[in-house]
Design a protein that fits this description.
Chain lengths: 317, 342
């Protein structure tokens, strides 16, 4: 390699982009540090108890985050179970099966869903979805009501409404990323499949298999969004901190309790406990992202021997 | 997120305050309770029409935020629905005074299929319902005070505020006074550990939830109940009379309390004595420093307060607030002289 003096504009460009990248890391670190620093009172007072107890009593100064952690994870997972098949279906239809004239309007409309502010979803939830869900709950037969999943009074607001609103909010994110991923599957793969006599369904399955890491990534992106969603969930989940499998019972999420109580929290311990909830949410989001990253990497590694891996393996040997 | 917005807000306020020092106009910034926000905005706009050089800005960020911002002097005045605690007053950099501005009443709202009658509630009855001890509308305890009304065998769905709120504070303050069990089990705060029920976000959330849910019982400020045309019940006062909330009966509650008004106006007027008083009533307060660093702003604010407490009160009833009784206004006019304007 010939050594040349780097041009000043290149140095500047590299420095600038590098600075932006570092800024992100510094930003995340600063958020974590600040959350930790400002929740000191609560961390000192409760320690690990904060993660393990269920009482949230601002009057008595007793704070436990477990029902909120439960509500956040449960609602996000439910939303994912509902939204993933739909998002995947949309992505497959648009990228593989859709007639050309329909493609553009479909893409436009799914992406429009992502642009709607969450408060609008919340209002729609209160005035449209919640009454429908209540009808459904009222119509639930008694034998089904004895199942823990469907127990509880027919309030309309509750876990089911929250999960449905979240699912609708998550679909456009997962769908558009999954669509991009499927679009990136080389045409040669599909042509090869057809050449071997594959049916259309078999060719699509092959494309899905090829794109699976990206699809998992798309779903995890939706999960991250569902974990942090605040306003729409607050408006329909019923805001009652309890741990229950029931879809009908009102529950509570971490983001919702912060949004609800932060403005009027005058007591220092209360405020610190709320910030610690933010810290817990931050940590859980981090863990979820790390796990999904590891999952995607391990899937990419499985594909190894046939794909790009051999070169690096040889280099190592 | 809220935190960073707050910091940004504080910075913006500081920047604006700095910029206006050179200008002719007097610009004053305040922040606090959301409940009195509509009438404060009205007052500041009306006052600005009469005194174009005076510009008062108010941000409705919540009572807690108002107390915090005025204590850290990022705003000139604060506003709150619950008086500052002795601890909070102690923590402030110098003496803060409370000034009641208007009054609000909190009413029990409900929707029961097939019931159009106006219901009666006693304090202990409301406490027992919100404690989850009375769960059906046809409970004998409810029937006893509502003779002649046929109540269905429907579950009571308790709806409360999920967000910290001055409305909650007033309602809790009343329940704690009339029910020893409420006082010991739940207590009084802007947000509490609810024994039962679902939480609606904001007064609109509670109103919407009550309207939609058959058998629901919630509580909102009188203003919201009137604006949303939702049924609300009468509440029994300490004289044993069932009184329906109105701007007159809420003002009467303040009048009753004026006789024992403490010098700093930090007083709860829930469940006061008197035949015609509505018992779930409260002041909302403006917070001012006795000795503010900027005497120009202090002088302007005192002038404004004198107007708001007299002529300004006429805007209250039409906006759903109860005006202050004359006895309280007289006391406040004297107290305003304590503020150092030179």
């Amino acid at each position: 390699m010939i050594k040349t003096k780097a041009r000043p504009d290149e140095v500047l460009f590299r420095g600038l982009t590098g600075a932006f990248a570092v800024l992100v890391i510094v930003g995340v670190g600063a958020i974590g540090f600040e959350l930790f620093r400002q929740s000191q009172l609560s961390i000192k007072e409760f320690g690990w108890q904060f993660w393990q107890t269920d009482t949230w009593d601002p009057v008595a100064g007793q704070f436990g985050a477990r029902p909120f952690i439960w509500g956040t994870l449960y609602s996000a997972i439910l939303a994912l179970i509902i939204s993933s098949p739909v998002a995947l279906g949309i992505a497959i239809f648009i990228s593989e099966l859709c007639p050309d004239w329909m493609r553009w309007p479909l893409v436009f409309l799914t992406e429009l869903l992502a642009a709607i502010p969450s408060i609008v979803y919340g209002l729609w939830g209160i005035f449209v979805l919640v009454p429908v869900v209540r009808q459904l709950e009222v119509a639930t037969p008694d034998w089904l009501r004895s199942v823990p999943l469907f127990s509880g009074p027919p309030l309309g607001v509750g876990m089911l409404s929250a999960a449905l609103v979240l699912a609708i909010m998550v679909v456009p994110f997962s769908a558009s990323v999954a669509r991009e991923v499927l679009k990136a599957v080389p045409q040669a793969q599909r042509e090869g499949a057809y050449a071997l006599g594959a049916t259309r369904w078999e060719a699509i399955r092959m494309a899905l298999f090829y794109a699976r890491t990206g699809i998992v990534g798309a779903i995890m992106l939706g999960f991250g969004r569902a974990l942090g969603e605040t306003m729409a969930v607050t408006m329909v989940i019923g805001n009652n901190p309890q741990i229950s499998w029931s879809l009908y019972k009102p529950q509570y999420t971490m983001a919702a309790v912060i949004a609800n109580e932060f403005t009027e929290a005058t007591d220092d311990l209360h405020l610190h406990a709320l910030i610690e909830i933010g810290l817990v949410l931050f940590i859980i989001t981090l863990i979820v992202n790390v796990i999904s990253r590891l999952f995607i990497w391990s899937m990419a590694a499985q594909r190894g021997p046939r794909a790009a891996r051999p070169a690096t393996l040889k280099a190592a040997a | 997120m809220t935190l960073s917005m707050r910091t940004m807000g504080a910075l913006a306020v500081a920047a604006v305050a700095g910029a206006t020092l050179t200008a002719q106009t007097v610009q004053i910034n305040g922040a606090g309770a959301t409940f009195p926000d509509p009438i404060y905005q009205k007052w500041f706009a009306e006052y600005n029409k009469m005194h174009p050089t005076v510009q008062i800005n108010y941000q409705a960020i919540g009572s807690g935020g108002g107390i915090k911002q005025v204590s850290s002097r990022t705003v000139f005045f604060g506003a709150t629905d619950g008086p500052m605690t002795p601890d909070q007053l102690q923590a402030a950099p110098s003496k803060i005074l409370h000034f009641p501005t208007v009054l609000g009443g909190v009413v029990p709202i409900y929707s029961i299929p097939g019931v159009t009658a106006e219901l009666n509630f006693t304090g202990p009855l409301l406490a027992d319902i919100f404690l989850g001890k009375i769960t059906k509308w046809n409970d004998p305890a409810i029937a006893k005070v509502n003779a002649g009304v046929t109540l269905p065998n429907t579950d009571i769905v308790v709806v409360h505020r999920s967000d910290g709120s001055g409305t909650t504070y007033i309602f809790m303050d009343f329940l704690a006074k009339v029910s020893a069990e409420w006082k010991s089990k739940v207590g009084v705060n802007t947000a509490v550990n609810w024994p039962t029920g679902v939480g609606g976000k904001g007064s609109d959330g509670v109103t919407g939830q009550v309207k939609q849910t058959p058998g629901a019982l919630g509580y909102v400020e009188l203003t919201y109940a009137l604006a949303n045309k939702i049924s609300f019940g009468s509440v029994q006062n300490s004289a044993g009379k069932f009184v329906r909330a109105s701007t007159e009966t809420v003002t009467a509650a303040a009048d009753a309390a004026a006789k024992q008004m403490p010098a700093d106006f930090r007083v709860s007027i829930t469940n006061p004595p008197g035949d015609s008083v509505y018992p779930v009533s409260s002041f909302t307060w403006l917070l001012l420093y006795e000795d503010a660093p900027d005497k120009n702003q202090a002088r302007t604010m005192v002038e404004f307060m004198k107007w708001a407490l007299t002529d300004g009160q006429k805007f209250a009833p039409q906006m759903g607030y109860a005006p202050l009784p004359k006895a309280v206004v007289d006391l406040e006019m004297k107290a305003l002289d304590r503020i150092k304007i030179k």
